[in-house]
């Protein structure tokens, strides 16, 4: 790492993901924020939108000249809606910057799956092949030289980290994956919407998008890639149900899978061992000990993801659990982890702050 | 119904279930509270423990002479820990009262399953046969003359109401039941325990008892009885995982099951039709319309339980959802519904109050 | 009371006040709902807007023909914005119904104060004189025959109930009143507004409208009327600051006043005695005992208001506290209490349900 | 600052203040944690008590040999109950370390006030004179060489920062101070106590300790010192009422004071100017602009304190508002700010992390 700081710009900086990115880069020793853009709040100081940043990040929001931004920046992070990213990112790339995109527009390798899931035609399908799926735990080599990184969805990150050790080793049945996941309210974004009003959300809990949520196919495609490594059956589809819970940040996946016959002497202890071994060199995947189970509180505000699993002999079922902060490992902080990979920094740079969630 | 009020006593009246019972009977036009007991707070007025009841229920708590209470009461409701109920209830019965018990002590027909699940020897196994499982939707005939009613567990109620139409008609595979359930914090009871302190519970979410939670076997036994009616495969075990969520009251079950081959043209619409038909005469089971999904907010403070389901053709999976108030239909108000059955009253008597959960 | 039910219509029925009114009247033994109106949701069933009411109130919302509604109804309750009520209420009155209005439009006797506070010209100032301020504790005689009732604001109700015993007896200095009040989020109404989004409101707490909040002059005018009865100094103005707290329902006023020289041997005990004596015949004002202090939890979902006070000898300051449900005694349930007065029913009719706020 | 890190030990490290200290020092570039002690959890890893720290702080908790700890540490921070600190701190000082104490035991200059407020005899009154009150904004010179620092109470910090500009310049009447303050639940500490259980605290709000709360005299003594600087009337007592609100962290003070005749042309604008001028060089006191009012959300997890004020001409009353994180500026992070002063570091060292409170 050299002494010069990485020049970072964020397009769409005033959503909750944007705010978490700003928080992260303000605390990052080798990065500096160059441009922050916002369609709605251009001309205002960032700390007028988020008063918590007063004195910490008072950068003035710009409407955004993407050509200039690309030229000024080593890395541009886009937090734009899908369908908008697919048009904006190519402009940035053409002007010589590297990009991490938060939308679903570059997460798929299979164009048809993307177009079916998002009900959109992709204007730049050639970029799907180039884009690196930004899960550093599985793609860190590719990230080093990536020009375009597709930051994974929050639910996919939580699901894939929990499933990967078992998929890559063929320890579970490829057609048995059921993911029951729960997200905090910030996952819905920063917007005026009665559905997310305090009085409507507090003391509420509900499933949504129970069939056909977009993250289903993103999870399935990546599960496919992971299971290919096992040389056994390849995952083609998964059952996935998201739920909305009355907390601001956090995500928990409770996953039900059938052990493969090849999983010798499956037990809760063995499941834990598989995790411990698989993630022993990872900075941000924390395998809990014994029968301790993941809790969203224990990852609050951080880039950590906690995992553990159990085996139920009564029904021959494996239960896997993972917890992350949906804005942290599930979005903005994972993007910073990927950025660290892209610029040759230790992955934990600027990310070891732990936020007590008292 | 005659003009004389049903004389009700509650043993263990100061827990959250007790408070919900008191609330319910205070509002009940044909019941009156005779004795309220508490080991910890005997001698105090009920409204000193729950100030919200000041002027509404100022009954003085007694330590409790069970013989006298039985003699004074038409119905005694026990909200005692398991292992205590099994010793107390027989005394009450012997002294001529009818009883609704909230513990797990009389919920099982199979003694061995009880003793394994609760790790206790049962002092009065002969009562297991007599006890009626207090789900009015399935056992209302038996309730009319029941001397002893075992009020179902909260998770079992939520699970069984969701599953029953499909189990009794053999529409789902008996060995495929996965129940992912979420409870509000009041389910843990009223106690001084750091685990349920505000700062530890707010903005937290976690699974617990992930293998071997006691309600697993209670659900499985009742699923067995329901599936027997179908003349097809009988349920022997279920996969069940409870979670703790940061709201005070409410419970949601998200259930994953495989359709049986006999479920012709399974679809989301068909699932809804099955529910509509099965529960068309029920007062408290509300089948939502179309793709509306149950939410704990919509049953807050009430005896209602909302259900609906969907079919995922990608994975050939049925998803069933049910939401109830864990203290309402999941405990105290369901006991009042059962009491109405026991005393020949319309089931909705005193229970149609809807509490807006704004 | 006769056997015929009071015919009630609610104009603006889909806000939180409307929902609390519907809840209240559904539970009321001598009232029936005739019309419910909504500009935004006309044509939908009430239970589509509030699913909790499914099976309880499935009335279809109407856009509203005010002439017809007036003719069909014994009582119309308007939950409309100020400036709209002042035009709508006269139409209702002219067509022969009685009205309880929830806006600020008919709460003032002094026209100039209204027009300055609301920055509006009043189209029917003649009605200000006729309108009865709907605090049954002080105006129950006038309510019996009232044609038009102005339901008090939430903050005024909470403040006036706490202050009245001392004002009417001249026990406090008229120019010393400081009211620091806190409201739950439902006080802001049911709307899509980022300021009241879950992620913006949870774990937040702030003052607002710190100078010039409209309720300031409403409180001051009524304090003036109450203090006139003492034959001593008359209140002309009060210091008032509202705050927004992260709970859905509830309101607490913490009031600081200087004792008048005439308050002999002022002490915490004496303050409690004044309250006990003054409110000894009231159904809904609960004077707490000893040093117990009001808490919003203890009035949740009810029409009760809890009060108590203390004296600080170090600074010769009286502290008065009152807690109510801002939608209950602070709005809709107080309107039902007033309606009971208007129709000669016991004030507690349909209002003694206690909602446990576990 | 030299390259060697400051050796820090924390006595009583497992409470919420302890956890915030650990978080702070883990992120501090020039400090390292040497010993963490706990009576209840000695032998366990810190991350077993707070799983969020797994991989971040896995230090093993010790019961604590205070002599050894003192010898090993440049600075010992004690988070002990009052009455325990007064006996422990002298042992630490005698063994050559510097100390920041979080209890009330060394905050007073007037022994009698301490003994009356805490109902304890002080075993080492000679230390009261030596101890520096750890508000860097007022005592930073004294902190540089301090051997013993008494970290201020949370309510006093919030109150004094708001009042200081007006007290030191004699702009308000010394006998008119009324402080209405609200704290999050973490202020009650980490303990098993039904009063702070989720179900008892959520959707609740109440005053407590309404007369005679210990912080009253701490505030009054420091107000006295500040007002002495004005050469005008000296504060002798203040009216103070704390309240408990349903959020985990945060504190807001709403303060009512009468302007002194010397406050020329008092207005909201003038009040803001006084703040801007007085705190223009402070890192952590943020004076809001215009009519923006402090909110606990905007200081969440930080060492910042936000202030602003308004003037109400109707009642000639000044309202001052301040918001801080009760565990941040109100406790642990302020202690780190003081430690920075003690060791010659810029005050903001390690403290500029902003925690987004989404």
What is shown here, in short?
Chain A is α/β, with parallel strands linked by helices. The first copy, chain A, has helices at residues 16-26, 46-49, 66-72, 85-94, 111-118, 126-130, 136-145, 154-168, 198-201, 215-228, 268-278, 328-342, and strands at 6-11, 31-37, 75-78, 98-101, 132-133, 148-150, 178-183, 206-207, 239-244, 251-257, 285-287, 305-312, 317-324. The longest helix of chain A has 15 residues, at 154-168.
Write up this protein.
Four copies of one chain form a homotetramer. By secondary structure, chain A is α/β, with parallel strands linked by helices. Chain A folds into two domains: 125 residues, 3-Layer(aba) Sandwich (Rossmann fold); 172 residues, Dihydrodipicolinate Reductase, domain 2, CATH 3.30.360. Chain A contains twelve helices and 13 strands. In chain A, the strands form two sheets. Chain A has a seven-stranded mixed beta sheet. Chain A has a six-stranded parallel beta sheet with strand order 2-1-3-4-6-5, with helices on both faces. In chain A, helix 4 links the parallel strand 3 and strand 4. In chain A, helix 1 packs across helix 12 and helix 8 packs parallel to helix 10. The relative contact order of chain A is 0.14. The model of chain A has no long low-confidence stretch (mean pLDDT 96). Chains C and D meet through strand 7, strand 8, strand 9, strand 10 and strand 12 of C and strand 7, strand 8, strand 9, strand 10 and strand 12 of D.
